[in-house]
Amino acid sequence: MKRSNAPIFWALFGAGGMLSALAGPVLVFVTGIAIPLGFLLPADMMSYPRMLAFAQHPIGKLIILALIVLFLWHAAHRIYKSLHDVGIHPSPGSRLACYGSAMVGSVFALYGVLAVGF
Amino acid sequence: MNRDLSSTQKDGRRPYMRPMAGWWQRNPFFVRYMLREVTALAVAAYAIVLLVGLICLTNGAFAFQSWLNVLRSPLSIALHLLLLVAMVYHSWTWFEIMPKTMPPMYSGGKRVAGAVITWTGVAAAVAVTLLLFGIFWSLRP
After folding, report:
1. Which residues of A touch B48 (CB under 8 A)?
2. Could you tell me the pTM of the whole model?
3. Which end of chain B is less enclosed by CB atoms within 10 A, N or C?
């Protein structure tokens, strides 16, 4: 019997869902609201030299990669399953659109953390 | 029964299919379900914001500064406020349904109550929020 690949997608969905449930709200607030507005945290916290140093550090790379890749796969899997509820039933096309975009995004993220240098 | 719904359009018998437009709007439970599911769009949007930032970072100081300028625009602030609301709702619903999504947990031969699982999860999310904010606070330039 051919093994199902569904557990892989469910595992990525779960990991991304858990990470975003725990850290998502504070990250959106800090990077998207607090720092851009200079509210509670200084506006120059995400300056180019600082972010470059963060992205060049191995732990920084790992954090960036985990956030982008797991968030993308969580969203892709959930959207793929939910399309069913709005009348777009599971098909190779919808599967490719969802998992394919997550894959493309993951490749870009991997390219990014490597291209940014060490 | 034909389980492959996508093929029924081409079915010569043209069997009756119940219309499904707006089905979820008729019951508050399903409205909450749909709201919970669309939080995935917010998670995806935030991942794309970060990904664009990362790609700008690889393109040098000028490209990264333009990304930062976009983040400061009123439109971006409004989007992030919306993302924040969706992300908090995602966080709450993630732990709200966790008693149903995780395997049954037993303690001393008794099943752990759903509320205990949910509130442990919420407490963990609050702890991570405070911890991460503390780390950001300590990293101020």
Report:
1. 105
2. 0.91
3. N
- Contact (Cβ atoms closer than 8 angstroms) between residue A77 and residue A10: yes
Beta carbons of B119 and B75 less than 8 angstroms apart: no
SS3 B110: strand
Measured distance CA(A44)–CA(A37) in Å, rounded? 10
Pairwise CA distance, residues B30 & B10, whole Å: 30
B18 CA: distance to closest CA in chain A (Å):
11
Mutate one of A9, A13, A28 to test the B interface: name it (highest B CB count within 10 A): A28
Query: Which pLDDT tens digits describe chain B residue by residue (141 residues)?
Result: 445 554 445 667 888 878 888 888 889 999 999 999 999 999 999 999 999 999 999 999 999 999 999 999 999 999 999 999 999 999 999 999 999 998 888 988 899 999 999 999 999 999 999 999 999 999 999
* Angstroms from A62 CA to nearest CA on chain B: 13
| Cβ within 8 Å of residue A44, ≥6 positions away | A50, B141
Q: What ipTM was estimated for this complex? A: 0.96
